[in-house]
Amino acid sequence: MNHKRCIRIFVLLYMLASCFGILSEARAADIFPPPDRLQYPALEFRLPSAQRIELKNGMVLFFLPNPELPLISLSALIRTGSAYDPPGKEGVAELTAYLLRTGGTKKTASDAVDERFDFLGASPSVSMGLDSATVHFTFPKSDLDACLELLSQMLSEPAFEEKKLQIALSLKKEELRRIADNPQKLAFREFNRLLYPDDPRGRYATVASLENIVRDDLVVFHRKSFFPTNILIAVSGDIAKDDAVKKIEQYFGNWENPGSAPAVLPPPSKSARGLYFIRKPLPQSIVVGGELTVSKKDPDYYAFALLDFIIGSGGFPSRIFTAVRNNEGLAYSAGSFYRARGNYGVFGTYAFTKTASTAEAFELIRTILRAVAAGAVSQGDLDWAKKSVLNGFIFSFEEPAQIADQQMTVAYEDLPADYLAAYRSRIEAVTLDDLKRVAAKYLNEKKRLTVILGDVERFGKWPDGWQSPVFLNPQP
Length: 476
Known about the structure:
alpha+beta; Cytochrome Bc1 Complex, Chain A, domain 1; 6-stranded mixed β-sheet
């Protein structure tokens, strides 16, 4: 009897629950309409602005708080670079950056510096690029004083210990000797060297130039480049603005300015043209081509950035990737790149292909560029490129540290103050006519430089009418 009663009660409860569920679903349908009927205001992307603060010693600080985690992120840009190497002593800039971190300071020996960073569980990275030096350092808020003290010693009072310099020189010489074992690195190095003939940007460290470098060269290079008025610094993290200014001035405020900042290098005036071969008995070839083009300050910059995306930097759907890799299977990697700076730019293409298909891959890229220059781009291409580029732009500002860093970079490159804020609207304003005009104006085969590394005798039949190549013999 109790058992039957339990069954009846269970059935009744189930029926009530089902009815309630039906009513709830009906009510939910009224309250919560289907996703395709949802109405909401358009999403707006508003770029936060880092505060620009000029410190008493002339150092410029970009500050943006981020209290989410008890961390501090610090970045710096210094107007220098490998392009500022003394002639005949190429490699000084890179060694200076390396020794700033590893060569000790006037107050603390290198081994002690390493021990302190190991204890703190944080260490700054110092790197030297073509036309800037960069510093990146992230550390716990609780270690603010200890980390800033060490960083200020490294940047303002480096010791450049002789024993550490000799180790660095040995490592760099060995790296140069091994460059022949890295075909991609070798091909791009020779491409860049030819891109900047008779220009300091085209000079590279060699074993011979390293033999000319002594400790005093690093001391002089540091003195000419590393001082407050030549440094931009970005700080973000769990710290108030007044505290950030106070701490930076506490540890960097007594750093003196010995002279004026190095002059900004003028844009390259010319580049090599034509075809260059590097003999290398490999089962694959490296094909790199390109030319000098528009800068970030040029009104055509935005259209050219979209053009590059369509040609090859946009990944799988881009012209070169689709044709060379997907359709023909001629390369395991192919595409384009656009390196835009404040006063000039570099556009290039590349393909890593098997030896027998070298000529075919080269000719296919050449055909694509010719077609685009002749106007073979569509509104669909432009719409896809705009959407992708704008999405990528928005997601480059996920963290406050990224925002502060990019605003610091805008100042370093002397771009308009509204560059970041106006970027999206200027990309959106590009029309199909703009795209075709820019393609016709700047994609110039007669100005193009191409470097191909590989087993030259096995490249296959070379395109008819193409000029005879110049053979290079790169030296370490």
